[in-house]
């Protein structure tokens, strides 16, 4: 028969038993938990972070919290940088200085050599390619001789050829010079039915400077009047055997569109 | 983390830049040196120098041979002889006495000015050259009348002992071919 006391005791015991596992089990757990629990919690957090952190970063970026982060990073990085700086100060400058000196020396030599080469090239003798460039020299001589022959020849029967030559072979102030030189002759030539023939006997290229050249020309000019209306002994004589005259002048020619055009006629003040 | 990587590399860019600059300077130095060498050993340049020397000597010689003052005939003729070589020199020496007498009798002063000159041929190795010289000769007679005459000179130069001297001199003929 269970006495109330017994019953009470049993109840107490049962109560103690029930309390004992609940009381003894958490105790060692908490003592372990003091060490392990933060790690466990951190692990749990990192596991959960990827998504959350991405969002946080995005928010941070949007919020312009970069500066704060950078400050933190700088604080972290400062000691490292200082040690690196000390390292380069002891080892870095040597190759750097060597390279700088080498650069200066090489640069200096390059500049000096360049100016020496420039001095040599600036020598007027080298700038002038007359005779040194034989092909160009003979090309200029040939074209100048042909041009002079065409420009200073006139046939009353074919004045168009003379006009054509003037248009095709003259440029710049030579147009006016040519007109002045031949103006008087041409005025009489038409009525006297004159045939003027000019031939270059000698020529020499004084100077070729790229597209410009100067040629000294010796030319023979013969003038024959075929009209019978001339008067005066000299003209009569000319009619009979022609007048020969030697001329010397220099022409400046310029290379244009594959041809050498007369740009200036220097008659040496005559 | 980014900072710690960048910091030692922060020196490396400076080194890299210096290296690049050095290489660029080296390339430029090599190019300039080659260019200088090419300019100094240019055959056509040496030829051009000879051409200009021959022209300068030729123009001077032609001018000398067309200059004579009756008051200083001997000086003038000495200059003629020193400006010439070969056959021309021989002719001048042979005819010197006769010519000096003529000039002293005529009492003329002849001066010449080179208007223009150019070399037509140059044989650098043989030391021969031909040139054209446009000359204006002024002859002053005892009564102080002076006349100008343009001359179309054709000269031949020969190099003797490193100097260019006239070995032939004449005037370009006028109307020879056409008249004949």
Q: What is the CA–CA distance across the termini of chain A? A: 168 Å
Regarding quaternary structure, what we see is heterodimer
Looking at CATH, the homologous superfamily of the largest domain in chain B is VirB8 protein
The CATH C-level name of the largest domain in chain A is: Alpha Beta
How would you describe what is shown here?
The complex is a heterodimer of chains A (270) and B (180). By secondary structure, chain A is of the alpha+beta class. Chain A has three domains: 1-90, no CATH class; 92-122; 134-266, VirB8 protein (Nuclear Transport Factor 2, Chain: A, Roll), CATH 3.10.450.230. Chain A has nine helices and five strands. Chain A has helices at 4-24, 26-63, 66-91, 93-122, 124-127, 134-151, 159-169, 174-192, 233-241; strands spanning 154-155, 194-209, 212-225, 243-256, 259-266. Chain A has a five-stranded antiparallel beta sheet. In chain A, a hairpin with a 2-residue loop joins strand 4 (243-256) and strand 5 (259-266). The model of chain A is unreliable at 22-49, 64-68, 70-89 and 229-240 (pLDDT under 50). Chain B has 180 residues and is α+β, with helices and mostly antiparallel strands. Chain B folds into two domains: 2-38; 47-173, VirB8 protein (Nuclear Transport Factor 2, Chain: A, Roll). Helices cover 53% and strands 30% of the residues of chain B. Chain B contains seven helices and five strands, in the order H-H-H-E-H-H-H-E-E-E-E-H. A five-stranded antiparallel beta sheet of chain B has the order 1-2-3-4-5. In chain B, a hairpin with a 2-residue loop joins strand 4 and strand 5. Chain B is elongated and about 95 Å long. Residues 1-7 of chain B have low confidence and may be disordered. At the A-B interface, helix 3, helix 4, helix 5, strand 2 and strand 3 of A face helix 1, helix 2, helix 3, strand 2 and strand 3 of B.
């Amino acid at each position: 028969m269970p006495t109330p006391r017994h019953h009470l005791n049993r109840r107490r015991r049962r109560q103690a038993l029930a309390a004992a596992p609940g009381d003894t089990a958490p105790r060692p757990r908490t003592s372990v938990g003091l060490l392990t629990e933060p790690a466990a919690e951190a692990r749990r957090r990192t596991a959960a972070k990827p998504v959350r952190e991405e969002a946080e970063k995005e928010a941070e970026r949007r919020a312009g919290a970069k500066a704060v982060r950078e400050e933190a990073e700088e604080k972290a990085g400062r000691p490292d940088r200082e040690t690196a700086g000390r390292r380069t100060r002891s080892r870095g400058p040597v190759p750097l200085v060597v390279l700088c000196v080498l650069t200066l020396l090489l640069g200096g030599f390059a500049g000096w050599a360049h100016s020496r080469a420039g001095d040599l090239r600036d020598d007027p003798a080298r700038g002038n390619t007359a005779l040194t460039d034989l092909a160009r020299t003979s090309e200029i001589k040939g074209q100048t001789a042909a041009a002079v022959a065409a420009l200073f020849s006139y046939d009353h029967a074919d004045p168009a050829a003379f006009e054509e030559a003037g248009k095709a072979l003259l440029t710049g102030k030579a147009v006016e010079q040519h007109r002045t030189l031949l103006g008087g002759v041409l005025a009489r030539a038409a009525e006297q039915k004159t045939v003027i023939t000019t031939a270059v006997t000698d020529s020499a290229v004084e100077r070729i400077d790229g597209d410009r050249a100067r040629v000294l020309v010796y030319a023979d000019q013969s003038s024959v009047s075929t009209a019978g209306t001339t008067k005066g002994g000299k003209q009569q004589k000319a009619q009979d055997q022609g007048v020969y005259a030697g001329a010397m002048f220099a022409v400046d020619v310029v290379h244009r569109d594959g041809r050498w055009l007369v740009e200036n006629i220097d008659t040496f003040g005559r | 983390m980014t900072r710690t990587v960048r910091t030692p590399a922060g020196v490396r860019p400076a080194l890299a830049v210096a290296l690049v600059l050095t290489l660029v300077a080296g390339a430029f130095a090599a190019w300039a040196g080659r260019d200088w060498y090419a300019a100094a050993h240019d055959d056509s340049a040496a030829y051009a120098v000879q051409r200009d020397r021959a022209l300068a000597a030729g123009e001077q010689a032609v001018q000398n041979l067309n200059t004579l003052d009756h008051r200083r005939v001997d000086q003038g003729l000495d200059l003629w002889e020193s400006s010439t070589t070969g056959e021309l020199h021989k002719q001048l020496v042979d005819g010197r006495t006769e010519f000096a007498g003529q000039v002293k009798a005529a009492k003329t002063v002849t001066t010449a000015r080179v208007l223009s000159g150019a070399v037509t041929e140059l044989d650098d190795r043989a030391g021969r050259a031909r040139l054209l010289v446009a000359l204006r000769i002024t002859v002053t007679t005892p009564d102080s009348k002076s006349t100008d005459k343009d001359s179309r000179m054709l000269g031949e130069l020969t190099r003797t002992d490193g100097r260019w001297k006239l070995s032939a001199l004449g005037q370009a003929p006028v109307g020879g071919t056409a008249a004949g």
